[in-house]
Specification:
52% helix; single chain; 6 helices
């Protein structure tokens, strides 16, 4: 089943907390966000079935990442101000690639739909 704007609206409004950027987006932007989320997940996980839940979790994160304020950060603007209203300063915290924004919930949904374990704990060396 393909993810839809209507399905995303229902899922996001029911299960997610930070929903304002998705709700404020117009229908055309919502479609573009769903297309981007679906294509990114399909590219990153090409051998797995991508359930709608994974797309809906990821599309909400993309809506936040591509909101008016964060979009400027993605384009390399480090700070700006609106006289008498607000000043915005960005740290270098917003990861620039969409793949880096895939939430753990999306990965869990893909794991559940395919009966696999993707990733896991990393083993790292430590000097004591």
């Amino acid at each position: 089943m393909a993810a839809t704007v209507e399905g995303a609206n229902e899922y996001i409004n029911t299960f997610l907390v930070d929903t304002e950027d998705w709700i404020d987006a117009d229908e055309a932007k919502k479609n573009r966000l769903i297309n981007r989320a679906s294509s990114t997940l399909t590219r990153v996980f090409p051998t797995y079935v991508i359930p709608d839940k994974a797309v809906y979790e990821f599309v909400n994160v993309l809506a936040i990442a591509y909101n008016d304020t964060n979009r400027l950060n993605k384009h390399g603007i480090s700070s700006y101000s609106i006289t008498g209203v607000a000043a915005f300063n960005y740290k270098d915290t917003l990861r620039s690639e969409d793949e880096d924004l895939i939430p753990r919930e999306s990965i869990s949904a893909i794991e559940d739909a395919n009966g696999v374990q993707i990733g896991g704990k990393r083993i790292r060396r430590t000097v004591l």
